[in-house]
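Work through what follows:
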Amino acid sequence: MRSVYGTFTKDNWTIEYTIHGKGEPVLMFHGGHSSCFEDSGYKALINNGFSVITPSRAGYGETSASIGSTLTEACRAYVALLKHLNIGRVHVVAASAGGPTGITFAAAYPELVLSLTLQSAVTKEWLKPEDTAYKAARILFHPKTEKYTWQLIASISHWFPRFMLKQMFSSFSLLTYTEASERIGRKDHQLLSAMNRRQRSGEGFLMDVEQTKMITEEQLEAVFCPVLIMHSRFDSSVPADHAQHAAAHIPHTEVEILECWGHIIWLGHMAEEVDEKLIAFLKKHEQTL
């Protein structure tokens, strides 16, 4: 597998990025607590002739938080990265808290976007100040404390992956762990453990939470490329009404409400089906020369 890590610096900011595979380009906007080193769901894309370009979004990894003053500013920086890499039109895939970035990018730069896929994606205001999850996030994932939060989670995940998933389960799924047990295999516990060990929040996650307020119905209506929305009906992290909200306002949309166990649709008994649906959609809208 061809893999590249790089950084791109312009003016007073820097973006770090990875490129995996070789072929038609997919610009991946990762979810919260992640970075350019995310690789969940990438294998099928690479095996089917796509290259995956993943910038660490604003405030994550080595990418400057300053580009994230607004979603518009951030997307302007991602366009500069594509120009630097000499990449033209791309498929955009936006996951979870990366949803607002993907929507903004597709609405602002239609000439660059072949298609947009929203996977378990945030599409409107999320984690409001009165929510318990919001209050917890302000403490656990604050830039001054998040390092220690993730060190603890990574350590427990490494030694006790099944126990860690049980503890985190309600943050991912509306099902109980027992109800979902047949949908999750031993391999999935190990994959989630590996995911936990590479996650960090930096300045990015709290920035993500604030930026969800910036997504408007007008922006959704300005997305004119083909759109695929993939969302589990059992997602407790980003409820399925985010998918329904986007589908109600974005033209040219295909919606897949899935029976996956929860938020992380790349893991579990339907992971292969999720891959197949995504690949079929991207190939349907491949660039024609």
